[in-house]
Amino acid sequence: MAKIIGRESELAEFQRIYDSGKAEFVVVYGRRRVGKTFLIREHFKQKFAFYHTALSPIELEGKNLCNKQLLSFHSSLMRYGAESGSQPQDWFEAFDRLISLLEQQKEEKRQVIFIDEMPWMDTPRSGFTTALEHFWNGWAAGKENIMLIVCGSSTSWITDNLINNHGGLYGRTTREIKLQPFSLYECEQFYESKNISLSRQSQAEVYMILGGIPYYIDCMEKELSLAQNIDKILFRKNGKLANEFDRLFTSLFTNASDYKKIVTLLSQRREGFSRKEISDQTGIPYGGGLSNMLRVLEVSDFILPYTYWGESSRNVKYKLIDPFCLFHCYFKSKKMTTNESFWQDNLTSPSLNAWRGLAFEDLCFSHTRQIKKALGIAGVQTEISPWHSHATEGNNAQIDMLIARADRTINVCEMKFVDSEFVVDKDYETKLRNKLTVFQAESKTKSSLHLTLITTYGLIRNSHSDRIQNVVVLDDLFTK
């Protein structure tokens, strides 16, 4: 059995569900390449009563999609011992054949049914979801030994048709498990399992490029340096992930070009854009269609809606948070370099250093639980957001991250990704003092302000660093 890295809570949940003694309809969803299929297959592979993977529509020709999916389902039925016969003519017949197969097996034994990439099976006018409703409501839900697991990368289809279904499957799913990308802690375990030796700073940089996506980081080769790996994976013509950006959206969305327009636009401004700005600049009409696309990108973990600290919820902005997409748009689509050694040739360039600073901020936002643990406030209720000044003249103060705590304390966080211990000089001390003064004046907060530095290797204390009360280092982000 291949080693499963991390996922302790998901594995424990799978076991609880397996042992529940009742019919279970389990939905596992999450971003493409996050490891859904691997986790389910490796945990349950000796227990499947039936396992089917849908055909990718990208690989199929445009005609007879339903027929091809039915033929593939028929092949899976035969592989698991179904009686020979002709291909099912529709999904009602296909699920009836599945029922016949399962009824041939011992009813006292837990029967695990796994249907992978289910959204691909729901081709236009196929009647798939109605047949699925009939299968579950009319047969499976009454069988205490049935455990149906379905998954797919099309998070919008999963949420609309299963989790938030308003028809025959309303309230029928018994468990929903959203698989998140690896944390730095899990990535480090993954590297160790592959005998890949990287410093934690290098691991953080890989995370800032590829995110915590297992499939992506599995492309790393232990014989190569970080820079050599990045060039080989992303910048070579036939690199494993050289065309992943286009494949990613084509595989998830029917109107992939509009989704790519939104993502590309959001990559152009750190703080993101309002819905009206997105509509104006992409040409996508401001209405339900755009709202649905933004919702889909949100539940798929590509974007994040947020408001600045202290602002009305009406002032929502949408920002791009997927590291891989941010990297692609920053370097690949914008610069369109043809240099296959781009990363090695530009390691100390201003553009890479600027990117590292911005990407480290995103890394910190994706590890706020670890930051809170390092600050000793893991159990304190908090609201975490950025802040910017509303002053119209002579001041553009902004704060990368505010951790507003229920104990009337606010951690004012600065993030710095540097190669050695950070040094505060006179100019930076002045900048910090100005930020605190402006924030306190504009917010009128009565909370205590704790200036907090999140950096790679720590802080060298000197006469300019007294205002910094807390220091969080990169090692802290690698905690469980």
What this model shows, in words?
The protein is of the alpha/beta class. 43% of the residues lie in helices and 16% in strands. It has 20 helices and 14 strands. It starts with 7 loop residues before the first helix and ends with a helix.
Radius of gyration: 25 Å
First-last Cα distance = 24 Å
Strand % is 15-25%
User: What's the helical proportion of residues?
Assistant: 40-55%
Secondary structure: number of strands: 14
Extract low-pLDDT stretches. none
Number of helices: 20
For the sheet with most strands, the description reads: 5 strands, parallel
The shape, in one word, is: elongated
> What structural class is derived from the secondary structure elements?
alpha/beta
State the strand order across the main sheet: 2-3-4-1-5
The chain-level mean pLDDT equals: 92
Layout of secondary structure:
Elements (H helix, E strand, L loop, with lengths): L7 H11 L5 E6 L6 H9 L3 E6 L11 H15 L11 H13 L7 E6 L11 H11 L7 E7 L2 H9 L11 E4 L5 H10 L6 H11 L3 H4 L8 H10 L8 H9 L3 H11 L8 H8 L5 H12 L3 E4 L10 E4 L2 H13 L6 H4 L4 H16 L2 H7 L7 E7 L9 E8 L3 E8 L5 E2 L2 H18 L4 E8 L3 E2 L7 E6 H4 L3
Parallel strand pairs: 1-4, 1-5, 2-3, 3-4, 10-12, 11-13, 12-14
Antiparallel strand pairs: 6-7, 8-9, 9-10
Helix pairs in contact: 3-4, 4-5, 8-15, 8-17, 11-12
